[in-house]
Amino acid sequence: MSLAARRRPAARGVILDRSLEELPLFRLSDSADDVPVSFTTENGGRWRVIPAPGDRLPGTFDQDVYVELLHRYHEAGAPADGAITFTLHAFLRSMGRRADGRTYEQLRAALSRLERTTLESIGAYWSAQSAHADTSFTVLSTVSVQRRRVADREQLHLFGNLAAGEPGDARVTLSGTLRANLAARHVVTISAARYHALSSPVARRLYRILEVARADGRLSWRIPLERLAEQLPLTQRYPSHLQRVLQPAHEMLLSAGLVRDIAIRQYDRQWHVDYVLGSRPRDES
């Protein structure tokens, strides 16, 4: 890291691609389900998330890795080539995760999935490069993780600026499609601290999608319950099951002050969720 980067104050907000935040990407459970995520937008656009052969869809851990990657990209000053470098140990600790053999492997797998999972849009994803033209891309265009040799790790205690618990270094490149939207300021901003304070993956995803509604200038947002399930996405389909999944996440959002009120009501045989948003918290500006 350069001296200028070390002197740069830590970014309070995480700047995310607004187009991607509107669309489902991460399964909110880490099941082995390999069925592509499909979603149809209000304008008739079609979106699919297609796992790599032999792998599963990105899940809850991958969602947190994605947010941390965007946080680090912003903190690094949005490098023109999209490259971010970090140690696995420091990355996990920044996510609030325990750094051990299991989480190192989880992180390597998540980075690989973000490179190999195809995001396919037919008029669904707005791009600063091509508007609503059909496109496919991945979150990461390249991933390289160098494992330190055992002999190297045994020498780490001789160097004060290295930690013996770091088993590898990663260099990843953020997709040019995402970088173009970030550069064009087609973005939403969340607070890293508020995001990590939410212990539920569903609450974390809701926080991100509600910021899209807030960025549109809405003070309230009504959405059919079934459509919300598709947009998050959730695998449950019965209204009673969806409400049971959403209730603890809603309680977290209310307790954190991220929304003012939430109500699930039935109108003409269809269930809707009403969110009263209010203004954006100061630490997300």
From TrEMBL:
Supply the InterPro entries for this chain: Replication_initiator_prot_A
User: What superkingdom does the record give?
Assistant: Bacteria
Record-given protein name: Replication initiator protein A
Q: Which organism is it from?
A: Gemmatimonas aurantiaca
